[in-house]
Amino acid sequence: MSLLLALLLDALFGEPPSRLHPVVWMGRYLAWAWARVRGLWSGAFYWALGALLFTLPALLLDLLLRPLAWGWALLGLLLKPLFSLRMLLLEVFEVEKALGEGLEAARRRLARIVSRNTADLSEEEVREAALESSRRTSRIAW
Fold first, then answer.
1. Quick one: average pLDDT of 75-99?
2. Domain parsing of the chain, residue ranges
3. How far apart are the first and last CA of the chain?
4. Model-level pTM?
5. Max CA pair span of the chain
6. Are 84 and 137 in contact (CB under 8 A)?
7. What's the per-residue H, E or C state across the chain?
8. Nearest to residue 83, comparing CAs of 142, 1, 19, 135?
9. Are 96 and 117 in contact (CB under 8 A)?
10. Distance (Å, rounded) from C-alpha 90 to C-alpha 50?
11. How far is CA 53 from each of CA 46, 58, 64, 79, 85, rounded to the nearest angstrom?
């Protein structure tokens, strides 16, 4: 039920402000940690630290809230910010719209949702990358 509530809230309301968004916090952590990685062992350390920082609070909240009568609703509210499905689908539409303006505009828009270099992608590759990003996220969400 928590998962369904989170998906419904995502569809209805979209994203919370950046300062309250756990995905933004994760991105900031990754940017901070990546600058400090100096090889395999330090990379493994920062990966484990990130996993601990973001999963431990979630596990503790799950253990505390699940037994409560309305715990599923509270978990759904807390889980919602981890879904960015609505935002991702809007970004994919914006990539398609940007293709109408030109390939460079579409590449810049695509770079917002993929981690790969978009500078040399063809129009077809831009479209495929945007669609693949939305497909992967949709599969994870459902």
1. 85
2. 2-82, 85-141
3. 13
4. 0.58
5. 54
6. yes
7. CHHHHHHHHHHHHCCCCHHHCHHHHHHHHHHHHHCCCCCHHHHHHHHHHHHHHHHHHHHHHHHHHCCCCCHHHHHHHHHHHHCCHHHHHHHHHHHHHHHHHCHHHHHHHHCCCCCCCCCCCCHHHHHHHHHHHHHHHHHHHC
8. 142
9. no
10. 28
11. 10, 9, 18, 16, 23
Task: State the Cα–Cα distance between residues 50 and 114, nearest whole angstrom.
Answer: 20
CA dihedral 100, 104, 109, 113 (to 10 degrees): 120
User: Which structure tokens are listed for 11?
Assistant: 């569809």
* Residue 130: partners with Cβ closer than 8 Å, 6 or more residues away: 91, 92, 95, 96, 110, 113, 114
| Tokens (6 digits) for 10 | 């995502």
pLDDT digits (tens, 9 = 90+) for 90-122: 889 999 999 999 999 999 999 988 878 899 999
